[in-house]
Amino acid sequence: MGYINFDKTRLVNLEYSLDKEILRTNRTGSYSSTTIVGCNTRKYHGLLVCPVDNFGEERHLLLASLDVSVVQEDTTFNIGIHKYAGEHYSPKGHKYLKDFVIDEIPGMSFEVGTVRVRLERLLASQTDQLLIRYKLDGGSVPVRLQFRPVLGFRSIHALTNENMVASTRTVPIPGGVKIRMYEGFPWLNMQFSKKPLFVTVPHWYRGVEYTEEQKRGYDYREDLFVPGFFELELKPGENVVFSASTEEINPPGLKTRFAVERKTKVPRDSYRNCLYNAAQQFIVNRNGKTNIIAGYHWFGSWGRDTFISLPGLTLSRGDLDRCQDVLDTQIRKMKGGLFPNMGSDDNPAFNSVDAPLWFIWAVQQYRLAGGKQTRKKYWTEIRSVIVAYTAGTEFNIRMSETGLIYAAAPGKALTWMDAVTSSGPVTPRAGYNVEINALWYNALRFSLEIAKRAGDEEFVSLYGDLPVKVSNSFIDLFWDEESGYLADYLDGGFTKNMYVRPNMLIACSMPYTMIDRDRMKRILDVATGELLTPRGLRTLSPKNPDYRGIYSGDQDSRDTAYHQGTVWPWLLGPYCETYLKVYGSKGVSRIREIVNGFEDVMSEHGISTVSEVYDGDPPHLPGGTISQAWSVAELLRVMDLLDQTGMDKNVKE
Description:
Elements: E1 4-7, H1 8-11, H2 14-17, E2 21-25, E3 31-35, E4 46-52, E5 58-72, E6 75-78, E7 81-84, E8 88-92, E9 97-102, E10 106-112, E11 115-123, E12 129-138, E13 143-155, E14 170-173, E15 176-179, E16 188-192, E17 197-209, H3 211-215, E18 221-234, E19 239-245, H4 254-263, H5 271-280, E20 283-286, E21 289-292, E22 295-296, H6 303-314, H7 320-331, E23 342-343, E24 348-349, H8 355-368, H9 379-391, E25 398-399, E26 405-406, E27 420-421, E28 424-425, E29 432-433, H10 434-454, H11 457-463, H12 466-478, E30 479-480, E31 485-486, E32 489-490, E33 496-497, H13 503-509, H14 517-530, E34 532-533, E35 536-538, H15 555-562, E36 567-568, H16 572-583, H17 588-596, E37 613-614, E38 622-623, E39 627-628, H18 629-643
Antiparallel strand pairs: 1-9, 2-3, 3-4, 4-5, 5-6, 5-13, 7-8, 9-10, 10-11, 11-12, 12-19, 13-18, 14-15, 15-16, 16-19, 17-18, 20-21, 22-39, 23-24, 25-26, 27-28, 29-32, 30-31, 32-33, 34-35, 35-36, 37-38
Helix pairs in contact: 5-18, 6-7, 6-8, 6-18, 7-8, 8-10, 9-10, 10-11, 10-12, 10-13, 13-16, 14-16, 16-18, 17-18
């Protein structure tokens, strides 16, 4: 059996198995995702979800599922599964499941009488194509298989209903048929390595329900279209490969393509390999751009998340070229010293005070890892950030007379704690933020280092004395000797907000830090006592009356808790780095213990990956996206730190 596997006793228990989701992505931005029993519980689930260039590269669901029936002696066993109103599941194909195993790719076996049908799924690496291989084991006579494609042709963020506009016409192609339900969409080409019979029986599955959307307070019921069914015969031991693709392919080559693609996959046969496998799934190369998807299923490419995630997703795997590709893509999006936090290329939102500073940190990590050391590489962009922040830019982001960075805009939350409800920002933190000014100091020190190498004497003359000023102001204004930790932020009048939050750890973890080791230890003690959990750090101490320990409910309820106690795994990066700065080699065993504690989640929520958030209260149940870039990235980055022998090269004080 594989490193991650589920047997029949667990699979037939839907209360257990419907909480386990599997995700596969590829470099073109397509993904395939469902539960381990094949029942879609989200509108985001589907076997083939692709970016559609005609619709601004927004991802669209093409093939929702492929329902398979095994026909033996005129008895039909349908091994698919969908949920309808109430607790009605039809058909109940999960009762035939024998096992679900993940290694290079997901595989599952169905046992029907004396016959076992084994299926394995994968996405082609560089094309919008799903491949499924079906193999017939057992039995002594051929068996007929019927395949009913269930289609959506809609945005992943929307739902669809039976309508008269949809084109139900299928067009024969070699090895199958193609269909395009609406104008603007690509054709969906459905083909088999063995010629099937296609029977046209157009109808709608009405009232399919998604339990996860219902829990999250969204619309959760839709209709899906089935154009008919394919039928073919398999002999014992024979296999057939099914392809769903936006391009028509040559059916005889499908078996070879499946075998070749399988060899390219990182085997999920260990904890670390699971993280490596997950890491590569966030990186998308499409139309000459290399982006990082912040999280699956609903996030796109976010500037802040990209830069925080980039070192862990690429440098921890020694992939310097991919790191540079992402940086090169991002700098093309710069405007006025800022990076877009979210939004499409045509409609970007620049409301992120920290994204440009995390960009400089990411370049710093790239260079420390051995990236191109050309004197002017990224210097123009780094310089533009420093100039913009000192002169002032959008969203009232500006340097004050103290040398510290101020940021505030009505109705906006400009830091990573950016949840906004119907009542406005939950944690606006308007003023001087602790992590922003720590990033600012690091950016100044690093930029001066690069300026000297680049021979930019003007820059050195203008900003050479600024780091000392920033450091003095920071310690004077943020440090609270009585409390023994840093203020989370200062308002416009420099009044301290002393909420215990994890942002002060970012101030300790920077390569260039203003915090001495004694203060670091005191900060670390507070964070360990009030914020640390087995799944990351709480965003607010449980001692605070604003603390929210459960992340659940509709969007307003979830957003209210998002940064008010909810646990974020990515914050382990700053925590562990600070711990290693304080304790050095004596702290390695403790940090390894914390990181290895995440091995349990490999089979918990998003299989072989790490969720976006966890409840602040025990037992710290997972929530948010099933696979989040910076959750995976920071675990890998900490593992990389632990593996380094010369750890002190990343610690500059």
